[in-house]
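Hi all, long-time lurker, first post. I run a small reading group and we've been trying to get comfortable going from sequence to structure in the token notation. Rather than ask abstract questions, I figured I'd post a concrete chain and ask someone more experienced to write out its structure so we can walk through it together at our next meeting. Sequence below, copied exactly:
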Amino acid sequence: MVVKICDFGCAAKLSNPDELRKSICGTPGFMAPEVVKGVHEPHSFEADLWSLGCILFTLLVGRPPFEGPDIETIYEKSRKYEYDYPDHLTISEEAQDLIRMLL
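-- Answer (accepted) --
Happy to help. Here is the structure in token form:
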């Protein structure tokens, strides 16, 4: 009953809050829209908060918030913030609000 979350294989350490990256790295369903854009959109710590929202959603629902038959569909859903909660689950308003703010 111990939860461990890690995948730092391609992690980049930012030296200060103003530093930006343009790398594309991560699991498609957990990558922030600005990361998906890659070299066109620099990103920072906010991309990690997005991923945290995806992880929290997955832990509560049992599946990632953004899914599709191919990577491009997953990216498109994340860019449009298209996710929903299954009707058969009761997710608290507080949890939904936290996820909404992270995403």
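A couple of things your group might point at:
The chain has four helices and no strands.
The radius of gyration is 14 Å.
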